[in-house]
């Protein structure tokens, strides 16, 4: 499941927001929200923006930078190997530039 979907599901759980309520907040069909947030349908950029506005998420929030280490590890475990490799290459490149 995409990390953004995992993050949004966690926000909904933490805030006690139902799919029904989220549908009202975003004017997105509840059945579509359920498909997207269960990973059965991809989330569009427009939907992602609508959710961020409805949930009052800023760019830092939506990147998940406030997550605990265990949440980062959970998200990391869900990434495809190619994406993990790309991220690690980027981190190494940034570390070289800083040193």
UniProtKB/TrEMBL annotation:
Entry GO MF terms: DNA binding
Any single Pfam family the record assigns to this protein: HTH_26
Domain of life of the source: Bacteria
Domain HTH cro/C1-type: 8-57
SUPFAM superfamilies hit by this protein: lambda repressor-like DNA-binding domains
Protein's recorded name: HTH cro/C1-type domain-containing protein
Organism: Vibrio albus
């Amino acid at each position: 499941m995409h990390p953004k979907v995992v993050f949004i599901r966690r926000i909904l759980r933490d805030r006690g927001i139902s799919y029904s309520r989220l549908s009202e907040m975003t004017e997105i069909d509840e059945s579509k929200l359920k498909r997207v947030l269960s990973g059965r349908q991809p989330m569009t950029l427009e939907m992602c923006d609508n959710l961020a506005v409805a949930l009052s998420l800023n760019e830092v929030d939506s990147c998940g930078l406030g997550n605990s280490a265990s949440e980062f590890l959970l998200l990391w475990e869900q990434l495809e190997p190619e994406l993990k490799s790309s991220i690690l290459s980027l981190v190494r490149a940034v570390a070289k530039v800083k040193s």
